[in-house]
Amino acid sequence: MDNAGGAELASAELASAELASAELAAAAAPPDVVVLQSTAIVDHICSVSAERLAELVGGEVGGSRRVDLQELTATLCRLGEFTSKAGGSAANTARGLASGFGVRAALVAARGADEWGALFAGSMRRAGVDTQHLVVQPGATGRSLILTSSGGRTMRTCMAADVYVRPDSITPAHFAGARWAVLSGYSFYRGDQLERAAAAARAAGARSRLTSPPSRSSPPSGRKSWRCWTPECLTSCLEMRRRHWR
C-alpha cells in the first residue's frame, strides 16, 4: 500500500473511531429530548415539473395517499432518479436537534428488517441520535414518495401494517432523564399509543409536544379533526426552544 492509500485508510479508521466514541458518549448521558415516531420511514424525494407530476399521479395532485408496494415501486421505476433519506417529521426533529444544535436526542420507533430500515437507523446514528429504542420487527420499513412541484408536495406512502411501536410497550423508562417528549401525530392511528406515550412521558417528568400529520391527511377513525389533542401534547415549540436554549 502506498503512502496515499495508507493515509486514506488511517483517516477512515479515525472517522469510524470518532463516530463510535460519539455514539458511546450519547448513550452514556440521558437525552434532553425523546422523540416518538411509531414507524420508521424512508423518503424518496424528487422535484418534477407540473406536467411530469400529472403523468406520474394522474389528477391526484397534492396531499398524501396510502399506496401498496406494487404501486410505489411502479411509480419509482417510472420516475427513474430520486434521492432517498430517513424521514418522518418526528425523526427529522430528532436529527435536526442532534446535528444542528447539539441537543442530546433519542428516538423511539420501529423499523422493518430490511435494507431501508438499516438506512434509516444508520442515518439517525450518524446525526448523533440515540437509537437504543429503535426496535427491529419482521416486515418492511415504511417508505414515502415525495414529489415536489411549484411549491407543493404530492406524497404516496407505503406502510407495513404490522411494523410499529406497540402501545403497551411504551413505559416511563423510554423517557427517563428527558426534559421533553416529541410525539408524532401519526400515533393517533395506533390505538391509544399517543395517550400511553404522553402518560409515560409525564410519569418520567418530561413535557410533551405534538407534531401533526400533513394538513390534507384524514383524521383517524373516531376523531372528527386533528384538533382533538390531549393537553399534554399542546406544549408550544417556541416554549421548548426558549426553555432549552436560554
Folded structure, characterized:
The protein has seven helices and ten strands. By secondary structure, it is of the alpha/beta class. The protein has a domain at 30-41 and 88-141 and 160-245: UDP-N-acetylmuramoyl-L-alanine:D-glutamate ligase (3-Layer(aba) Sandwich), CATH 3.40.1190.20. The radius of gyration is 19 Å and the shape is globular.
Brief summary:
This protein has about 250 residues and is of the alpha/beta class. The chain contains seven helices and ten strands. It has helices spanning about 5-30, 50-55, 70-80, 90-100, 115-125, 195-205, 235-245, and strands at about 35-40, 40-45, 65, 85, 105-110, 130-135, 140-150, 150-160, 180-185, 205-210.
Rg from alpha-carbon coordinates: 19 Å
CATH top level of the domain at 30-41 and 88-141 and 160-245 is Alpha Beta
Helix-strand category: alpha/beta
* H/E element sequence: HEEHEHEHEHEEEEHEH
Terminal Cα separation, in Å? 52 Å
